[in-house]
Every structure is written in structure tokens, then in C-alpha cells.
Predict the 3D structure of the following.
Amino acid sequence: MNQDFNFKDIVRHFTFEGAFIEANPYGCGHINDTFAAYFKKADGNTHRYIMQRINHNVFKSPENLMENIESVTRHLRKKIIAAGGNEQRETLNLISTVDGKSFYKSPEGHYWRAYIFIENATTYQVVENADHFYNAGKAFGTFQKLLSDFPAGQLHETIPNFHHTSKRFEAFAEAVDKDRMNRAKDVRAEIAFAEKRAADTSVLVDLLEQGKLPLRVTHNDTKFNNIMIDDITGEGVCVIDLDTVMPGLSLYDFGDSIRFGANPAAEDEKDLSKVWMELGLYEQFTRGFLESAGKFLTPVELAYLPFSAKLMTFECGIRFLTDYLNGDVYFKVHREGHNLDRTRTQFKLVADMEEKFEQMKMIVERYTSLQ
């Protein structure tokens, strides 16, 4: 993949320190192209930066996306410095271009950006340590807290209606109706599962429209692998992947974290006996999140935290099922029926959450009372 780009030409447009050595593919992201770029400083030491090519097919306005990231990281840095923190590690730091911009657009139409590389910290694809998930909860809660006074309306929607679950359900219903790939006949059970829960999809958006939930700056993609975990302390150091930071609900961030992190199995696990919502992990994340964010969340936000976990999981499931019905045109697939496997893991999680819902509520109530 790195052979497709002339990195020697690209790096000269940024204010990197040192002489460029090489750039290699880095990480497990599925949307943007990410590279670790190595440079030799004057003292002979080698250091690295993160370079990314923004996928402008997914993010239709990279300029607006980068304006969001500039605004949010500037706000975060001020808050972190004021609290005596380390702004070089606790938020992403953009490297400016030679003409003072946050991104470089190549003659071929590619959008490039670069960040300081956060060393001695790791992202994990699955939760290997319950303490890590607790610390992830603290980190995402702190992210919410630090941005709680940022005017959400100033941010652009980088993907319109990203977590508008009722619109996601409308797209699913359209996919069933059109059945472009003649696949609906093979997934009647999954379609029925989704249709039975149609009423859930409008709950949060209705509360927002009624003014009962506040609009906040939210990350909107709070998977566990979007937290950098310190290699020594195990603490959540930095929230990364800010492409979907935009106006939203705090419940989106909490719910998506549980969807991804409290399931001990892979998101595309075929053996559904391995898929469930681990209450212990749910409790660890809830404890960390509320320790950081519990004091500024409203009573309505707190009350709907358990529901948000179920809803975000259901939303993801119907997105996978919609894509399967449409012919696998959005999510990358690596085998036949891949999106269907993903759908089934999400729906299994939804069903498990429904069985454990009262316990989930009790856990939230317990840690809310400690704030």
C-alpha cells in the first residue's frame, strides 16, 4: 500500500522535524490509510509521526472534518494544560503543513494529515484486562467532561445522521423492500428480529427533539481500540480517531463502548455461543465512565445509559444487515456472509442485554449514587 504514494514528496509539505527515512502501514483501521513515518533528527536519534490519508469517499468534506479536529484538540489542550496534564500524550496533536494548514491536499486529490506519535502506549482490538476497560471508561468520560462546555453547534456533521437510529432503520426497511441481491429470503429470522424492535429506534432522537436530552460534543465511535492504553500504568492515555467527533448524545458514546468492549468475542464471531454481554466488563466501564462524567450528566442521560448500550448494538446490527441485503457495499468484507455474521453477533448481544437489563440498570444506579 505504501508503494502507491510518493512519501518523499508528501512529507515535504509538513513541518516535520528531521530527515525522512521511510513510512510503513500502521494499525488496523478500515477507513483511512495510516502509516508510521520515521525521521532522523540532527542528534542521530530516530522518531516517528503518524500520517493518514483521509478516505474522502466516506468523509465527503475533509476540510470540515479537519476544522472539527482542529477546534476540538485546541480546546482539549487548553483544558489538559490547565489541569497540569501532558498535552503531548493526552490528546492528539496535529502537525501543521508548511503553509500553516492542518492538512495537505495532493494534486491527485488525496487529503493528508499528520500527528505526533504517542509512544509507549498501545491500542487493543479486544479487552484483555478488565482494568483496561475501566480505564477506557474513565478516558471516554474525561473526554466528555473536557468538552462539556464546547458549543456542539459549532461542529460540522462529518457523516450526517450517523447515529440517527430511526433513519438507520428506514434504510434497513428500504433494503428489505428492494431486496436488490435476492437475499431477504435467507435472513427472515434476522429481519423479524429487527422489525420487532422498531419502536426502540426513535427513543433517543425523540428525547433530543423534545429537549429532554442535551446536545453534546461526542466521539461517536467509541470502540475500545480508539483508546491508547499506557504500556506501564494501564491507564487510558488518549482518545484517538476523531473523524466522527460532532454534535451528538453522550449516550451514543457510552452505548457504543459497551457494544464493542463488553462482548468477549470478535465482532464477526461465527460461533454465537461465544457471544454475550459480560456484566463484569459492563460494570468496569460504567464505574470508570461515571467517575469521570457522572457529575455533569443529567438525570435523563444517566437513566438511559443501559438502554443506550442495547440501542447502539441494535443500530450496528441493522447497519450490517442493511449492507448485507444491499450487496456488501459499505463495510469491507473478507468472506461470504461476513456482514451476516456481524449482524448475528450484534443481535445476540441485544438479546443478551435484554435478559440482563435490570442488572445493567442496578449497576448504573449504584455508581450514580457514589458521585
Observations:
- The mean pLDDT is 95.
- The chain has two domains: 2-119, 130-368.
- DSSP finds twelve helices and ten strands in the chain.
- The two ends are 49 Å apart (CA to CA).
